[in-house]
Design a protein that fits this description.
There is one protein chain. This protein has 400 residues and is an alpha/beta fold. The protein folds into 2 domains: 5-43 and 288-396, Aspartate Aminotransferase, domain 1 (Alpha-Beta Complex); 46-284, Type I PLP-dependent aspartate aminotransferase-like (Major domain) (Aspartate Aminotransferase, domain 2). Helix content is 42%, strand content 14%. It contains 14 helices and 14 strands. It has helices spanning 5-8, 14-27, 46-57, 70-84, 99-110, 126-133, 153-159, 182-194, 223-227, 253-264, 272-283, 287-310, 346-357, 381-396, and strands at 33-34, 93-96, 116-121, 137-142, 164-170, 198-202, 229-234, 247-250, 325-326, 337-338, 341-342, 359-360, 362-363, 373-376. Helix 4 runs parallel beside helix 11 and helix 5 (99-110) packs across helix 10 (253-264). The termini are far apart. The protein binds pyridoxal-5'-phosphate. Residues 38, 98-100, 124, 170, 174, 202, 204, 234, 236, 242, 247 line the site of pyridoxal-5'-phosphate. The site of pyridoxal-5'-phosphate (PLP) has 13 residues, from helix 5.
Length: 400
């Protein structure tokens, strides 16, 4: 069987592969604690579920406009105005089957062979592969703990070439939990405008933030920047709606219309029922309370994890200000021996912890950072405590 070159150019999603491996081990009877989850472990809030049920009962079960129902577009417009101080009209909004789909569509309509797309690392696993699927070239900008896992304006300027088309920003970030302040975004904005590149701003974790951090959308900094920014967001993370598959983007009309054209010849509209539920998620009166509850619980878990990391030799971890991920550095144990092998990188650490401690983490190499592991705290406090007990004793057993 001959396969198209484009599918041979990309890798399977490593985060999904790890979840599948942990699940398979559990099914074999192994007591695995999974820290791989990329989704809230909470149920979708009741008011949102009810809106989905009502949509079925009201026969809201047919094709909708390809780019989303007017009701959902209006709810999205209201959300952007209320939360981000951004004003859009319906022709600037496209609703898709998840934010991943929004990004994929964008890459397909915007980029060609030879185009360079700047992606700060650690990055969400799917960005580089979706850029490659569009035949374009991901240009990776490395960051580390010392810069809070954030790029600087100087670094961005140095990466720019004549072929640069766009910068991908993800704040708050998967996998690091870092987020850009308004001031940091303003510094990047100068370079962005000077070099006339587009910003793809993925803000899907915008409501999962802690310690009074204020989320800022780069598009809100000026009208000029708004015209140069595509904001991506979605229902999955902040409303515990991963399975409903609703993501959306807001952009200049020309871009939105091209994305809509592509979607019209591929998936058509996202599920009508999920769109109706998403209206309730975005503007329902009970939603803010439901989000607050989740964020309060996430914060407790984050704090517990940070306390535990501080006591474990060989791990260091900056405190995430958003998302439900921590990204500890395990390079302190590199060079130690396990099973006659030397631990050299993040894949070795993940393998060691899965086999020795029955704990599943996602190796940092999946996100372009081989010193780290991603531990999601979208899991119970009991799992966090037991998992950290296991990691701590497994690390102690390593030979120097
Ligand atoms: C940064 C980021 N963007 C986008 C997505 C995609 O979310 P969805 O397709 O479920 O809306 C994810 C999911 O893991 C993510 O972490």
């Amino acid at each position: 069987m001959k396969f198209a070159q484009r599918i041979q150019n990309i890798q399977p999603s490593m985060t999904m592969a790890i979840s599948a491996k942990a699940q398979a081990l559990k099914e074999q009877g192994m007591d695995v604690i999974g820290f791989g989850a990329g989704e809230p472990d909470f149920a979708t809030p009741e008011n949102i579920k009810q809106a989905g049920i009502d949509a079925i009962k009201n026969n809201d079960t047919h094709y909708t406009l390809v780019s989303g129902t007017p009701a959902l577009k209006d709810a999205i417009i209201e959300k952007f105005d209320r939360d981000n101080g951004l004003s859009y009209h319906r022709n600037q909004i496209v609703v898709s089957c998840g934010a991943k789909h929004s990004f994929y569509n964008l890459a397909q309509v915007l980029w060609d062979a030879g185009d360079e797309i700047i992606i700060p690392a650690p990055y969400w696993v799917s960005y580089p592969d979706m850029v490659i699927l569009a035949n374009a070239k991901p240009v990776i900008l490395n960051t580390d703990e010392s810069s809070g896992f954030k790029i600087t304006a100087e670094q961005l300027q140095q990466a720019v070439t004549k072929k640069t088309r766009a910068l991908v920003l993800n704040s708050p970030s998967n996998p690091t939990g870092s987020a850009y302040t308004k001031k940091e975004l303003e510094a990047l904005a100068e370079v962005i405008l000077k070099n006339k590149m587009l910003v793809i701003s993925d803000e899907i974790y915008e409501k999962i933030i802690f310690d009074g951090f204020e989320h800022c959308s780069i598009a809100s900094l000026s009208e000029e920047l708004k015209q140069n920014t595509v904001v991506i967001n979605g229902a999955s993370k902040c409303f515990a709606m991963t399975g409903w598959r609703i993501g959306y983007l807001a952009a200049e009309e020309k871009i939105a219309s091209a994305v809509s054209k592509l979607q019209g010849q591929s998936t058509s509209n996202p599920t009508s029922i999920a769109q109706a539920a998403c209206v309730e998620a975005l503007i329902g009166e009970q939603t803010p309370g439901a989000i607050d509850k989740m964020v309060t619980e996430f914060k407790k878990r984050r704090d517990t994890l940070m306390d535990r990391y501080a006591k474990i030799d060989g791990i260091s971890c900056p405190k995430p200000v958003g998302s439900f991920y921590t990204f500890p550095d395990f390079s302190g144990v590199y060079g130690r021996q396990w099973n006659g092998k030397t631990i050299k990188g993040s894949l070795d650490v993940a393998e060691f912890l899965l086999e020795e401690a029955q704990v599943a983490l996602v190796p940092g190499i999946a996100f372009g950072a081989d010193n780290n592991q991603r531990l999601s705290f979208a899991t119970s406090m009991d799992n966090i405590n037991e998992g950290l007990n296991r990691i701590e004793s497994a690390l102690k057993s390593l030979h120097p």
